[in-house]
Design brief:
The structure holds two protein chains of two kinds. By secondary structure, chain A is mainly alpha-helical. Chain A contains six helices and no strands. In chain A, α3 runs antiparallel to α4. In chain B, β3 and β4 form a beta hairpin.
């Protein structure tokens, strides 16, 4: 149990630093901003209580906001993701029992399950984030394009991370 | 009452969700309150020290370019020194002239965090209250504008760059002093929008736009950019153009914060005018 908690705290710190020091500095055309840090929320263990899910997502968002001077922006998007996560899991799972202490992963839940799971959550996060950031409708389609392109890149990094942490068996 | 408590306990997760969202949105939209709040002071200090370490490392990669910029600045300063001028009458050069009074002072600051890929971009500088920086001061690089200070803590400050939806710069055409407004519409960080160009102004590609000096933030004559493209509107009263910024927002290491020595006087004047009006 303690190991799981320490592992998640370590992941929290690593993902914030990775996002702030590397991903936020990458410049692709102004339409692509991958937000890989929500990988933390995606990988919290299945049996995490919902209040803890919400609070840790809030902490994650507000920590990132401190580095970008956007107080509340990432926090609002993260809390929304943490709120819909249990609904998404129960909607796409088909009665398979999940092992205690395990995180959602590509290896255990299969490609199809994990793809649905990450696409929905990343989509919700990026949609909320980019529309809150601009908060006007005059740039509706431009923002939609940013949501789509950034989501694709975030998902790409998530899948690479999954394949790196669980290499395919021979 | 018991039912209410039961209801609250059963549904607490929804209330927690709503409470956290409410806090986030309040922080996001309540800009005036939080600028000087304890939250910014604490987070600026912490985020600032982390970003400072990261910029100490990444600075080594841009030394060559920074050196070049400093050398160019040196050259232009040398050419303005009195020794660089031909002295027809030596007496006139060192005369103490009370007609000119220092209006702006410059503080050099290092950029420790910068972004150009978001819709709303900010820079963090390694100077704050202790060095005399306050809100609404202008930030420039050489003779080109960068943005304005929006939040200050003891040792750091955040600067809203031109690349922000809330940024609106009052500029003018250098050739005929016609006033325009410059904004940024997202996407490419090199291209901005020039709005409200009066119909009678003849626009040409490459026209220079400079600051108008109408706002309290920037003095007149700083370079904003050059006209990149334009459309002549048929139905509306104003033409529209895009501008290529003179500032390269993606490669800034050192910038200067403008300290207006006469700001108090200007503000007092404005306030007295306002109170007279009432």
């Amino acid at each position: 149990m303690t190991i799981i908690i320490l592992k998640n705290i370590g992941r929290f710190v690593f993902l914030i630093l990775f996002q702030v020091l590397i991903l936020n500095n990458i410049q692709f055309s102004g339409y692509i901003n991958p937000y890989f840090y929500i990988y933390f929320i995606l990988l919290l263990p299945f049996e995490t209580p919902r209040w803890l899910l919400l609070l840790s997502a809030f902490m994650l968002g507000i920590s990132l906001d401190a580095f970008t001077n956007t107080f509340g922006l990432n926090a609002a998007a993260c809390v929304l993701v943490a709120f819909v996560r249990p609904f998404v899991i129960s909607a796409i799972s088909t009665g398979t029992e999940f092992m205690i202490g395990h995180s959602p992963s590509l290896k255990n839940q299969g490609l199809k399950w994990f793809a649905y799971y990450s696409i929905i959550l990343v989509g919700v996060h990026h949609f909320a984030l980019f529309y809150l950031e601009i908060f006007r409708f005059t740039e509706f389609f431009q923002t939609l394009l940013r949501v789509l392109l950034s989501s694709i890149f975030t998902l790409l990094i998530i899948f690479i991370a999954q394949y790196l942490s669980y290499p395919a068996e021979k | 009452m018991r039912y209410l408590l039961y209801f609250l306990r059963k549904q607490y997760i929804y209330f927690l969700f709503l409470a956290l969202e409410a806090i986030s949105l309040l922080l996001l939209f309540n800009k005036n309150d939080y600028q000087n709040s304890a939250l910014t002071a604490v987070s600026n200090g912490f985020a600032g020290s982390v970003l400072n370490i990261s910029s100490n490392v990444s600075d080594y990669f841009s030394l060559r370019r920074v050196n070049q910029i400093l050398a160019e600045d040196n050259a232009s300063l040398h050419s303005n020194r009195s020794e660089a001028f031909y002295k027809a009458d030596t007496a006139s050069f060192y005369q103490h002239d009370t007609l000119y009074k220092l209006e702006y002072r410059y503080i050099s600051a290092k950029v420790i965090n910068n972004s150009t890929n978001k819709r709303n971009n900010f820079l963090m500088l390694n100077k704050g209250h202790r060095q005399g920086i306050e809100n609404h001061m202008g930030v420039i690089i050489g003779d080109r504008i960068v943005g304005q200070v929006v939040s200050v803590s003891d040792h750091f400050c955040w600067v809203m760059s031109l690349l922000n939806k809330d940024s609106r710069i009052s500029g003018k055409f250098k050739k005929n002093n016609q006033l325009v407004n410059i904004e940024w519409g997202g996407g490419n960080y090199q291209i901005g929008e020039v709005k409200e160009i009066p119909k009678h102004v003849v626009i040409r590609k490459g026209d220079t736009i400079i600051t108008s000096g109408n706002s309290d933030i920037f003095p007149e004559g700083l370079l904003i950019g050059t006209i990149d493209n334009f459309t002549i509107a048929q139905e509306e009263n104003f033409n529209y153009a895009t501008i290529r910024f003179a500032t390269d927002f993606n490669s800034m290491s050192f910038v200067e914060v403008l300290i207006d020595m006469m700001r108090k006087e200007k503000e007092n004047l404005k306030n007295s005018f306002k109170s007279n009006e009432r």
